[in-house]
Amino acid sequence: MKLLHSGKVRDIYSDRGDILLVASDRLSVYDVVLPTPVPDKGRILTALSLWWFERVADLVPHHVLSATDVPEEFAGRAIRCRTLEMLPVECVARGYLTGSGLKDYQRTGAVSGVALPPGLVEGSRLPEPIFTPSSKAPLGEHDEAITFDDVVALVGAETAVRLRDLTLDVYRLGAETAEKNGILVADTKLEFGTDPSTGEIVLGDEVLTPDSSRFWPADQWEPGRQQYSFDKQYAREWSLSTGWDKTEPGPEVPADVVDAVRARYVEVYERITGQAWS
Which long-range contacts (CB under 8 A, 24 or more apart) does 267-271 make? Predict the structure, then answer.
C-alpha cells in the first residue's frame, strides 16, 4: 500500500491496483486544516457518503468498489475505489443563496455568471437549482468561482454539459430525499473523474456530506438571516470570531466547539439516514 496524496481531509493510497480513500478526523475551513481533529468525523463522512452513493447509482456511475475490503486499521473510514482521472473542476449546485454565492450575487446580481432575480436575501430559495462551479486549488490555497464557459475551456463543451447535468441531478435527488427528513440542502460540492478504460464520467470523492454541503433544519428556515447549520459552517464562524485571517496556521479549536461540530455531524447523519449513529 502506497500513500499517493494527503489532502485536507482524505488520504489517498494505491492498493492492489485500486484506490483506498481514507477519511480522517481533520477539520478544514477556508481551505486550511485546523490543528484540532473532530472525533468520529471521518467515520461519519464515510458512512453518509456510502449511504448516498447507493441512492444516486441510477443517476451516475460511482467509484465505490467496497467499504469492507479495506485494511483493518482503516475500517469504517475507508472506501476501496476505482482508479479515476479526476476532472479539474469542483462541481457545485446551489438551491439556496448563501456563502460566497450570496456575496457574488450582491456584487453582480449573478452567481458564477448565472443571473438571478433581484431582491434575494441570505437564505433565499432560488427559482431552480443552479450550477456554480469552482476551480480546484492546491492544498492551502482557496478555490475560485468560475463560470460555465470556464468549465468548457477546461474540459470541452460535451463534458461540461454532462458535469452540469449530473451535478444538478444529484443535487435534486439529494435535496428531495433530505427534505423528506426535515433537512434542506442549501448547496453541495461534487467531484467527478473519468474511467481511463472506458472514458465514462464517474462520481468520486464524497457525496452530500456535512463537509461538502450546507444542511439546514427545514423547520427553522427563514430567509433574511443566517441559518442554523448541520455542517462545518459553525466551525467557519467560530474561526473568524477569533480574528484569524484564513491563512496558515489555523487556530486551535476548543473542546466545546469540537463537541458542537461533532454533534451537528451526528445529528444530520441520523436525520438523513434514519439510522442511529453508534
Answer: 267/230, 268/48, 268/183, 268/210, 268/215, 268/230, 268/231, 269/44, 269/47, 269/48, 271/178, 271/181, 271/182, 271/183, 271/230
- The span from the CA of 246 to the CA of 267, in Å, is 27
Collapse the DSSP code of 5 into the 3-class scheme (helix H, G, I; strand E, B; otherwise coil) and give the result: strand
Look-up of cell digits 444538478: 168
- Look at the pTM and tell me if it is higher than 0.85: yes
Give me the residues of the chain with pLDDT under 50, please: none
User: Can you tell me the distance from the alpha carbon of 181 to that of 272, in angstroms, rounded to the nearest whole number?
Assistant: 6
Contacts of 108 (CB under 8 A, 6+ apart): none
Strand 28-29 with 32-33, pairing: antiparallel
What's the grid cell of residue 185? 440542502
Looking at the chain, which runs of residues are DSSP E strands?
Answer: 2-6, 10-15, 18-23, 28-29, 32-33, 64-66, 78-81, 85-86, 91-96, 110-111, 114-115, 125-131, 183-194, 201-204, 213-217
CA dihedral 237, 255, 212, 134 (to 10 degrees): 50
Q: Which three cell numbers stand for residue 247?
A: 491563512
pLDDT number for residue 144: 85
Gap between the Cα atoms of 124 and 119, Å rounded: 9
Cα–Cα dist 195/200, whole Å: 6
**DSSP letter, residue 19:** E
Please state, in angstroms and rounded to a whole number, the distance separating the CA atoms of residues 28 and 33.
4
In the chain, the amino acid numbered 197 is S
Rama region for 14: left / alpha / beta (φ>0; ψ in -120 to 50; rest): beta
What are the grid coordinates assigned to 10, written together? 482524505
